[in-house]
């Protein structure tokens, strides 16, 4: 029981720390959070992949294991490592460029996004949705039941 519980607690801790760091406005902390969350997912895939066994090569055995190891989990982890390193390189380049332009590593609110958001809130306050007339809801045909000029199928 403890052999299954310890990796899951470790995965939960890495995931929670990664999400906490991703919510920061500092690009370096965002990068660290992204890497922690990626490593947590890799550990989760490895844990779900099952216990180790014989290599998936015909005729090979390993310490008398009776089952064959699943190579899919290992292949997925290797792919995830390559992808996370590519994303890490992109975020590092983004952080470097942001620091060179503004000499601040913290991500700030975009003034254009703030203006559009405030404009949208003002439009939402002005636009009121008219309430539907419940007394008009009948089963009798009305002008919206048929298209004008449509005479049915022949």
TrEMBL record:
Q: Which UniProt keywords apply?
A: Cell membrane, Membrane, Transmembrane, Transmembrane helix
Task: Name the InterPro entries on file.
Answer: CPA3_antiporter_subunitC (IPR050601), NUOK/Mnh_C1-like (IPR039428)
Q: Which domain of life is it from?
A: Bacteria
This protein is called what? Na(+)/H(+) antiporter subunit C
Membrane-spanning regions, if any?
A: 6-23, 30-52, 72-96
| UniProt keyword annotation of Cell inner membrane present | no
Chief subcellular location equals membrane
**Entry's family note:** Belongs to the CPA3 antiporters (TC 2.A.63) subunit C family.
Q: Using the UniProt annotation, give all residue ranges assigned to the region (Disordered).
A: 105-154
Q: Does the keyword Nucleotide-binding apply?
A: no
Q: Extract one GO cellular component term from the record.
A: plasma membrane
Instruction: Please name the NCBIfam families in this protein's record.
Output: PRK07946.1 (NF005929)
Localization, UniProt: Cell membrane
Q: How does it sit in the membrane?
A: Multi-pass membrane protein
Q: Where is the composition biased (Basic and acidic residues)?
A: 112-121
